[in-house]
Specification:
It is built from 3 helices and 5 strands. By secondary structure, the protein is an alpha+beta fold. It folds into 2 domains: 35 residues, no CATH class; 68 residues, no CATH class.
């Protein structure tokens, strides 16, 4: 069952499963498919590395009640939201960090 679902998914989106694709190529494909927009990082932004964000979420230091984040790619903040409940199952490891917004 799982294997057939994976094969169907591969047939619909082969670009997402290319093993030869670099991080940059994977991000570009992801941005095109999800219509991602960017803004520059500002001085007041609270930026976490991915490791810090995952660790803080796993230890309960950040919760959905506290706020939300948006993924950071290099020196730009994306419009892709991430919540602490997304960790560890549903987060994108190929981003550099998370810009956190408290309630």
């Amino acid at each position: 069952m799982f294997l057939s679902k994976l094969i169907k998914d591969f047939m619909r989106r082969p670009n997402l499963y290319r093993k030869t694709a670099t991080k940059k190529q994977q991000l570009e494909e992801f941005y095109k498919s999800h219509k991602v927009s960017f803004r520059p990082i500002e001085v007041d932004d609270d930026i976490y590395t991915i490791k810090e964000f995952i660790s803080d979420c796993k230890w309960g230091l950040l919760t959905d009640y506290d706020g939300f984040g948006e993924y950071v790619d290099g020196d730009k903040v994306t419009n892709i939201r991430v919540y602490p409940s997304d960790v560890p199952n549903n987060y994108h490891k190929f981003f550099d960090g998370v810009c956190w917004y408290n309630r």
